[in-house]
Amino acid sequence: MFIYICNMHYKIGISNPVEHFMGVQWQIKNDTGQNIRVQLPSWRPGRYELASYAKNIRCFTVKDKMGSAIQFKKVTKDCWDIFSEGHEQVQIEYEYYANQYDAGASYVDGGMLYINPVNCMMYIVGRMDEPATIELDVPDDYKIACQLRTEGKTIFTQNFDELADSPFVASAQLTHTTFKVNDGNIHLWFQGQQCPDMDRLIADTKTYTEAQIKIFGEMPCKDFHFLYLILKTTFRHGVEHTDSTVIAMGPESDWKLAAFYDNFVAISSHELFHLWNVKRIRPEEMLPYDFTKENYSELGYIYEGITTYYGDLVLLRSGVWSFEQYCESFNGDLQKHLANPGRFNYSVAESSFDTWLDGYVPGVKGRKVSIYTEGMLAALVADVMIIKASGGKARLDDVMKALYEQTFKAGKGYTKTLYRSLLEKYAGISFQNYFDELIDGCGYLETHLKTALHEIGLTYIFELDALNNKVVKLLKQSNQTAGQQYYFEIWCKKP
Ligand SMILES: [Zn+2]
Would you say residue 371 lies in a domain? Predict the structure, then answer.
């Protein structure tokens, strides 16, 4: 018997907690009585490579309202034709193997149901814009953490894009803390051991959130949710969503270490910056997302590089981090850059395009670079170029705010041409050489980086660590000129 809350209703439960299978019952009203085609996404936004989630599906069946089988046929690895002609109601059932506990996958066991719908929930081709309800078949003492409206055990979504971007955690162990920042509410959810010093975490979160809001002029949502999964093993992974982020960190036994807390705050600041940069300011080639195939873009140095740059810089500017803490993180990135011979072979733009090929594995030695590391360093160079050329009147913040105003607010995506024109507008100089050498070329970054650091009175040296490895160290020049001090202060001034 079908009970429709909505024309699309998903019922999700833990079908086999020991073997980590969740059960999905998807009830569809098929008013036209036509055949339908259903699609499972092939990838998830935030990780620009194919994931082939359909390999986790078993026991796929389709029934009509009387429980009789409806025939179906697969048309691609993750797309099915359902021969539902003449049936006004269709129920699709399957089990999904949810046994990957990270920030972007799904996991179920006897104590929790953690779902990234983009992994395991399908849409009807041609009906992505319809609202849906998701009913969770979980014990009564489970709390539910999700960016979407939730009533009891039911989650409501306006369309499939929203659903695909709305992970949720259901568990009896979830803890929830909420506080205000400006007019918005920040929610901190913890599954696993929560931060032992919540007062400090709340104060730091408020501080860097306010600093990010000032860059863009507004918080684009009323409520933002940090969904923290704290693991017992060593782990660090975060994924951004429209009004939330999932961050998986471990081991929980390291909470007492200063470096672990610094790392935790850094990844949180990075993911929050995505609230604007990529969830709203998005390359036009990814607007809307096409879940069926690669969405190629050469602009990873903007959506990940600039985000990496600001994630740390905002902590420095807002005082959550000291200059020494900032340098610690910067050194790690610079070290990664210098240790990678791929910087002489492939540009950051080419490497962005190829994330779909090997973006998330070390890959062939000397082939490519990281959009995070190279993009971060390129962003620093651009920021200092604007500060210097404008005499301290502008900085990269202005470009990001303008991108937000001119693209997201206008309902469109951005292009490389627009980004470049904004850099040139605020700097008042040409960025031709910057793009030729740093973005589309390779092997030039250190030269530009040294120049940029020099402008703000910084430099880097090499030292031997305790294991006799050569390590890089960022520091302030011993005798900064007044001009260098001036630009340094603009660079790290509060927004
Ligand atoms: Zn990111």
Answer: yes
Q: What is the CATH number of the domain that holds 68?
A: 2.60.40.3650
Cα 256 to ligand 1 centre (Å): 26
Q: DSSP per residue over 310-358, as a string?
A: HHHHHHHHHTSS-HHHHHHHHHHHHHHHHT-GGGGT--HHHHHHTHHHH
Map residue 489 onto helix, strand or coil: helix
CA of 274 to the centre of ligand 1 (A): 7
By residue range, what is the domain housing residue 487? 284-491
Strand extents, DSSP E, 64-131: 72-76, 79-82, 89-97, 107-108, 112-115, 123-124
Q: What is the CA(270)–ligand 1 centre distance, in A?
A: 6
Q: 302 and 153 in one domain?
A: no
359 and 472 assigned to the same domain: yes
What global pTM score does this model have? 0.97
264 and 289 inside one domain: no
Per the domain annotation, does 3 fall within a domain?
no
Query: Measured in angstroms, how far is the CA atom of residue 87 from the centroid of ligand 1?
Result: 44
CB 453 within 8 Å of CB 460:
yes
Residue where a domain terminates, one of 171, 191, 207: 171
Contact 381, 452 (CB under 8 A): yes
CA of 250 to the centre of ligand 1 (A): 18
How far apart are the CA of 53 and the centre of ligand 1, in A? 21
* List of residues 6+ apart from 152 with CB closer than 8 A: none
Determine the 3-state secondary structure of 28 from DSSP: strand
Averaged pLDDT in 10-residue chunks for the chain of 495 residues: 71 96 97 97 97 97 96 98 97 98 97 98 97 97 98 97 98 98 96 98 98 98 98 98 98 97 98 98 97 98 98 98 97 96 97 96 96 98 98 98 98 98 98 98 97 98 92 94 97 93
